[in-house]
Design a protein that fits this description.
alpha/beta, FAD/NAD(P)-binding domain, Enolase-like, domain 1, 6-stranded antiparallel beta sheet, 5-stranded mixed β-barrel, globular, binds flavin-adenine dinucleotide, binds nicotinamide-adenine-dinucleotide
Length: 481
């Protein structure tokens, strides 16, 4: 094994592995250190995203969606089905197969690009040296031209609900259940609570979400969040706001949760399983030697500048371990930027245009600024909305709930944000993101030709509505602020 590399990346999640591959493409010698081991004890690349995050959750969302569609969604098409059942272990096996395929694919990409994968733990020492300890406990010291910290994040624990991996579980446990719990409690009605709560609700669990805040999905535009809450509640997600969980008690494989409800009254609820998903925190334990020269910020994130450089020369940090949204694609783009900057290019990243998607049904997606953020900034803006109830493709697909909202600058007409709840919301918002990246105006978007019938036509109409030109809606007046 070589001990000197141009670049050593610690962590092979979507931030680290993408950075490693891009650096190798640029002709640099690269090693990537990863400590994760899969259920068979084998080192696996891909980080949270591929192993216990984006990929397995979306696999379960897809399976559960198909099941719910067959059970509840076909009758009024005139399609009668009976004897439908769900084999949960088979569904979990399918999910595991997809994970294996993708983590194996990443290993192949490393090979093809000449990236050295080192399975074990990395620790940054002074002077861009990295201590590597393999899974057998053998330690060596490697030297790096540049070090990249990409160690990601892990679930936040709360003392009132300690995760035991059996009855009280975190998101990883919620991806591994071998049967549908009759009653499932969820602490935290954020992204994971809604996605994984939806999976088990669709498969038949009674799901109660206990959320501390009084505002539902504060990161989303509140018009969209209100619509989301309505639709998800109709699907049977029991979302309780302003809940302060004060205690949990596990007895004989069941858990009782005590919480103070919005009115201050103490409530008790019994569940078969309880998922704790109250956010994630950066992984930096045992990562930095005291003299590594790298600073953390007040939230424990690695402190970086706009280009992901830490305050130690030649040391960079990317992904969930640094500021910004904890999203796979945000980390990957930072990985590309850092690799290119190491190679001498001046690449920068546009943090203003990072799409964000919640994969419920319908999907909830956003890019750019929300109406609340615009109000707060004092920037003059215009709004155009269009409901899927007036979109032909959505009605044909039984997906008429939700809307597209486009926000544009009142003077320049430049698109500043787009939020969607509805069918293919992730794809629609990505179209808006492309438009925003090129500085498009709402008028430009309105002048483009969209195929008919498509869900995308709702984006077209919302962009037209910004200037009062929507065709398929009775209200033509733009809302200006
Ligand atoms: P990670 O993916 O966490 O990877 C960091 C890696 O570093 C890990 O493999 C870890 O083992 C390794 N590591 C840590 N310390 C060391 C060390 N000292 N030495 C060696 N290795 C180390 N994001 C989305 O964009 N879309 C989604 O749909 C989505 N769904 C999600 C669903 C769930 C259930 C969860 C939990 C997360 C989801 N996310 C999603 C978030 C996404 O997974 C993270 O934002 C992303 O994985 C962060 O990438 P990263 O490379 O920064 O860190
Ligand atoms: P989150 O921040 O989305 O939601 C956590 C929720 O828990 C918040 O609403 C918060 O108010 C609430 N909360 C905090 N403490 C609480 C307490 N003591 N009692 C009750 N509620 C409490 O975090 P998450 O759902 O754990 O997900 C973590 C991160 O992972 C996300 O922020 C996101 O960055 C990433 N993620 C992304 C996706 C996606 O892109 N589709 C999917 C899953 C996760």
């Amino acid at each position: 094994m070589s001990t000197t590399y141009d670049v050593i990346v610690i962590g092979a999640g979507p931030a680290g592995y993408v950075c490693a591959i891009r650096a190798a493409q640029l002709g640099l010698s690269v090693a990537c250190i990863e400590r994760y081991r899969d259920a068979e004890g084998q080192g696996a690349l891909g980080g949270t995203c591929l192993n216990v995050g984006c990929v397995p959750s979306k696999a379960l969302l897809d399976s559960s969606h198909k099941y719910a569609e067959v059970v509840h969604g076909l009758g009024h098409h005139g399609i009668a089905v009976s004897g439908v059942s769900c084999d949960v272990p088979a569904l979990i096996r399918r999910k595991n197969g997809i994970v294996k395929q993708l983590t194996g694919g990443t290993a192949m990409l490393f090979k093809a690009n000449g990236v050295t994968a080192l399975f074990g733990s990395g620790r940054l020492l002074a002077g861009r040296k990295v201590e590597f300890t393999d899974h057998d406990g053998q330690t060596s010291v490697l030297e790096a031209g540049h070090g990249v910290l990409a160690t990601g994040s892990r679930p936040i624990d709360i003392p009132v609900a300690p995760v035991d991996g059996k009855t009280i579980i975190d998101s990883t446990g919620a991806l591994e259940l071998d049967a549908v719990p009759k009653r499932l409690g969820v602490i935290g009605a954020g992204v994971i609570g809604l996605e994984l709560g939806s999976v088990w609700r669709r498969l038949g669990a009674e799901v109660v979400l206990m959320e501390a805040m009084d505002v539902f999905l504060p990161i989303m535009d509140q018009q969209i969040a209100r619509e989301a809450r309505k639709v998800l509640t109709k699907q049977g997600l029991d979302i309780r706001m302003s809940c302060r969980v004060t205690a949990t008690e596990v007895r004989r494989g069941k858990v009782t949760v005590t919480y103070l409800a919005a009115d201050g009254a103490e409530q008790k609820e019994g569940f078969d399983k309880l998922i704790v998903c109250v956010g994630r925190r950066p992984v930096t334990d045992n990562l930095l030697a005291p003299d590594s020269g790298v600073n953390l910020d007040e939230r424990g994130l690695v402190f970086v500048d706009d280009n992901c450089a830490t305050n130690a020369p030649g040391v960079w940090a990317i992904g969930d371990v640094v500021r910004g949204p904890m999203l796979a694609h945000k980390g990957s783009e930072e990985g590309v930027m850092v690799a290119e900057r190491i190679a001498g290019q001046q690449t920068q990243m546009n943090y203003g245009v990072i799409p964000n998607v919640i994969y419920t049904d319908p999907e909830i997606a956003a890019v750019g600024l929300t109406e609340e953020q615009l109000k707060q900034s004092g920037e003059p803006y215009k709004v155009g909305t269009f409901p899927f109830a007036a979109n032909a493709r959505a009605l044909a697909a039984d997906a008429g709930a939700g809307m597209v909202k486009v926000l544009a600058h009142a003077d320049t007409d430049r698109v500043l944000g787009c939020q969607v709840i509805g069918p293919a919301a992730a794809e629609l918002v990505q179209q808006a993101a492309i438009a925003m990246e090129f500085g498009t105006s709402a008028e430009d978007l309105g002048m483009m030709v969209f195929a008919h019938p498509t869900f995308s036509e709702a984006l077209h109409e919302a962009a037209l509505a910004v200037n009062g030109h929507a065709i398929h809606t009775a209200s033509r007046r733009a809302r200006k602020k």
